[in-house]
Specification:
alpha/beta; Urease, subunit C, domain 1; seven-stranded mixed β-sheet; 36% helix; 24% strand; globular; binds guanine; binds zinc ion
């Protein structure tokens, strides 16, 4: 009676039922089902609840994947990452601007070669999946081939991925520059080719203000007007030298964010990576335009960029997702990223609770990408992207977990000590795409 596209998963489930506007509201929304069942059909969740409440006819004849000792959660969402920088993670000794010139630009030049882009795109998507990341917002390079390479791999996995071609027409090597006109035309072609095709979504991707002329930013804004459902993805206020440079390039603007804002690049589907050094009027603009921040702690520490305050973002009512920012970031793992996120708050005298951390990696990330109606928890009707986690993946984790008395403490230990070794299986679109 069931089609082959129906899958049934039994185990311990954890998710967050509703999005929130304050961190204290998260704990009451935590849904923990010690023995539950998830039914998926055609990539969507069709039933979710306690095993004791399952009507036997619902699972008649179905093979059930049972994970009695594991924790099943929604897939992690990475709201900022660069696939072409995979090979240059851990590049020594520089802050942002010299890091870009010395390491990043020479690496990105290689992605003109489609075969090379295919090879790294494949490696990259596998790395996401083995780390439990089922959706990501991704920078490609200036080359349209790099976008094709990534979306082709994602399509083979039915993965919900948002990506776009970098727009960059100055202050970079010539081999990496487009022109205002070509960036517009190529981005438009890529939107028509990929946006809302299967699970792919397109992001207009100016690299950051210093590498675009005003003409290019203006055409980026025109594209957003022509295709209002596409995303805008860029960097903002990461590094003090970068901010000073923007101010010298655009002296007639109120500040860094004002440049994007005046060109129509803020909004509900705009995601700005970093936002470490925002001024008060910029926080206000982020809030008023419902723009989102990608908080990338491993990158912010590695590049010495600064400490992002989650408390401030909650206070200002600005959406935040978690980003790895590979290759400025040092790990593909959202678990390791959360561990660093906690330490970044500690250095500012603030706390990041386990439940808040879990929110940023799942439902809160979905909200920051304006996808909380489709992703982020186990609500019926949502897309079936989820992961199976072993909280006891190493001897030290077993020892620590044996002393955890609550699910909150167990989760906190997972975030602090965990990495890709904890991911037992990854399901995308209802299908198992990875198993350890
Ligand atoms: N700002 C402009 N380009 C980049 C990049 O590739 N990585 C980071 N972290 N910041 C940027
Ligand atoms: Zn970045």
């Amino acid at each position: 009676m069931h089609c082959a596209d129906t899958s049934a998963i039994r185990g311990r489930f954890l998710d967050i039922q509703q999005t929130v506007s304050q961190p204290e509201e998260i704990a009451p929304q935590i849904r923990y089902i010690e023995d539950g069942l998830l039914l998926c059909k055609a990539g969507k969740i069709v039933w979710f609840g306690a095993w004791a409440d399952v009507d036997p006819t619902l699972i008649d004849g179905l093979a059930i994947a049972h994970y009695p000792d594991q924790l099943i959660t929604p897939g992690f969402i990475d709201t900022h990452i660069h696939f072409p920088q995979t090979e240059m993670m851990g590049a020594y000794g520089e802050q942002l601007l010299s890091w870009l010139n010395n390491y990043t630009f020479p690496t990105e030049i290689k992605f003109k070669d489609k075969a090379y882009a295919d090879q790294i795109a494949d490696f990259f998507v596998n790395e996401l999946i083995k780390n439990g990341t089922t959706t990501a917002l991704v920078f490609c390079t200036v080359h349209p081939e790099s976008v094709d390479a990534l979306f082709e791999v994602a399509a083979r996995k039915n993965m919900r991925l948002i990506a776009g071609k970098v727009m960059m027409d100055r202050h970079a090597p010539e081999a990496l520059c487009d022109t205002a006109e070509s960036s517009y035309t190529e981005s438009k072609q890529l939107i028509e080719k990929w946006h809302e095709k299967g699970r792919a979504l397109y992001a207009i991707t100016p690299r950051f203000v210093p590498t675009s002329t005003d003409e290019q930013l203006s055409l980026a804004g025109k594209l957003k007007q022509e295709f209002p459902t596409v995303y805008v993805h860029t960097h903002l206020s990461e590094n003090k030298d970068e901010i000073a440079w923007v101010k010298s390039l655009f002296p007639n603007h109120a500040g860094y964010l004002d440049v994007y804002h005046q060109y129509g690049l803020t909004g509900q589907r705009s995601v700005f990576a970093h936002c470490i050094h925002l001024e008060d009027d910029e926080w206000q603009c982020m809030h008023d335009t419902d723009s989102a921040i990608a908080f990338c702690p491993t990158s912010n520490l590695f590049l010495g960029s600064g400490l992002f305050s989650l408390r401030k973002a909650w206070q200002k009512g600005v959406k935040v997702g978690l980003g790895t920012d590979v290759g400025g970031g040092t790990s593909f793992s959202q678990l390791q990223t959360l561990s660093e996120a906690y330490k970044v708050q500690q250095l500012q005298g603030d706390k990041l609770s386990a439940f808040e951390a879990f929110y940023h990696a799942t439902l809160g990330g979905a909200k920051s990408l304006d996808l909380d109606d489709r992703l982020g928890n186990f609500s019926v009707g949502k897309e079936a992207d989820f992961i199976v986690i072993d909280v006891n993946a190493t001897p030290i984790q077993q020892l620590r977990q044996s002393h955890a008395k609550t699910i909150e403490d167990s989760l906190f230990a997972l975030f602090t000590l965990g990495d890709d070794r904890n991911i037992v299986a990854t399901y995308i679109d209802g299908q198992k795409v990875y198993s350890a």
